[in-house]
Amino acid sequence: MKECHHTEPLKGHEETKFDPGYEPDWAVISTVKQERRQEHPPWGFSLPLSELYSLRRARFSLGRNFLVMTTRGGDPLPPLHFHRGGTRELLKYLYVTHSAIRSPMDGRLFLAYPHDSGALSQSFDELHLFDDTSADLVSRFIQDPYATTFGGFSKVTNFFRGALRHPESPLGNRSPQDAHFPHSADEEPGFELITCVKLGPRPEVKRGKPLDNWDQFLDPEGRVTDPQKVKKLVFRGGIVPSLRKEVWKFLLGFYPWNSTAKEREDILRVKTDEYFRMKVQWKSVSEEQEMKNSLFRGNRSLIERDVNRTDRHNSFFSGNENPGLALLHDVLMTYCMYNFDLGYVQGMSDLLSPLLFVTQNEVESFWCLTGFMDLVHQNFEESQEAMKQQLLQLSLLLRALDPELCDYLDSQDSGSLCFCFRWLLIWFKREFSFEDILSLWEILWTRLPCENFHLLMACSILQSQKGELIGSNHDFNSILKHINELTMKLDLQSILCGAEAIYLQLTNCKELSVKVQEVLGLRVPSSFSEESPNSEPTETDTLLAQSEARGASSCQPFNGRTPQWTPPTCP
Hints:
Elements: E1 14-15, E2 32-33, E3 52-57, E4 65-71, E5 80-82, H1 87-98, E6 101-102, E7 109-111, H2 117-127, H3 137-143, H4 145-149, E8 155-157, H5 158-164, E9 192-194, H6 227-237, H7 241-251, H8 261-283, H9 287-291, H10 294-307, H11 323-338, H12 348-359, H13 362-376, H14 385-401, H15 403-411, H16 421-425, H17 434-445, H18 453-464, H19 466-471, H20 476-484, H21 492-507, H22 514-519, H23 539-549
Parallel strand pairs: 8-9
Antiparallel strand pairs: 1-2, 3-4, 3-7, 4-5, 6-7
Helix pairs in contact: 6-17, 8-11, 8-13, 8-23, 10-11, 11-12, 11-13, 12-13, 14-15, 14-18, 18-21
């Protein structure tokens, strides 16, 4: 292969880049109509690979991949579209022939280094990575890339190492305990060796019994004596239906864990007054006012449309004159008054319906919804940055677990995992039965064993479908179709066991990459800044303080932090 050729795609057809499998309101990328332009025939270009400087993949492609090549003169060429996969094969070929390496600063950028010592030495000189610009730089680099680049690169990948190491080099058998490797992150801040590590065996996990005795966790004044034990029991087996109405209000922050029964009565009274004040605000809007407020009018229109199609199979919401529909509508409208910035976004009705079904109370369901939205509100922001971040985190986890499956999805232009969008947006609401969702959500609300346990569930589902996906040789569209057809066909308990087993398997690996550790909550991201202890108290804290001032007994506050996860004994 001496040249790369490009042919402009035929125009005048619709190309659907992403079909999420549900209402188009949630689509990340819409269908684009290309203008018909037949007067210009297809054209192409050629480029000697000796003139190739870099290739860039689509940074966040939710559809088909494409590559943009840049010449050594700095000129970008028209994009190469890969409608049936092939980007990885091209990069692998360039890796062998031109030592194409992934940039340590940009995972989507690949730099081409021909097997020419002079050119390589010149490239290092231009980057000013090293003080020594003598001719023996390349030979020293080949003999010991880590010692030579340790001060110049913040990251060294195994891809980079393999591209420039001589095949006969003894470095091939070097262990991570070698003196040239950093022994901990503290010894060299910012340095990370990214390699494919071999995971240990995946342990067997069994589910437990649901929480069925609430009174045993309450002291004489009604405080929860051991919140962490409660959360662990809920994570292990869920909650019996008769206790959900009470326990959910603690899991979602309506009641503090350290509140007494008397304090909870005060909280409910104040929160009820606050709810109806907000409800009166939108109820009192006249038709004339509404005609002049497009935002209010738009929220009402969306809510009315979604309410009429949310969980209508459930008896609580079935029928045309069902009072449950009116409650669903009123709570969502009141939430728009509570959170003006976010308003109503499609999918919120899916989050509210189980809350309303369990609490059977307008006020309590509203405040439980605000607690739930505190966990997932970023999913509904217009920028969708949080959703993109979760898809990237999911990709990181799946890559660590199953590189073969990731390679296959990449080859079918499905490596972005966009078909998991709905799973993460509304926490699998449409993938499991209504009763299963009640169990799943209370488990996820415990935030055990980590905040991203829903991503581990997604990994568990994908790995359970690996044989079907790879064995049937699916393309992008059929992969999307297969995933959508899993609705109501998944066994929740098996997926939960698989997700927890994945967590234990990953956390038992001592060579896990820093990024994966951050996703699992094992390492605090460097950009994370803890909340100031002098931050403003919440309204609930104020109510508790007022209650204590009236003579209520004082109690030790619960710090709210998730403890270190204690894995179960695996057979």
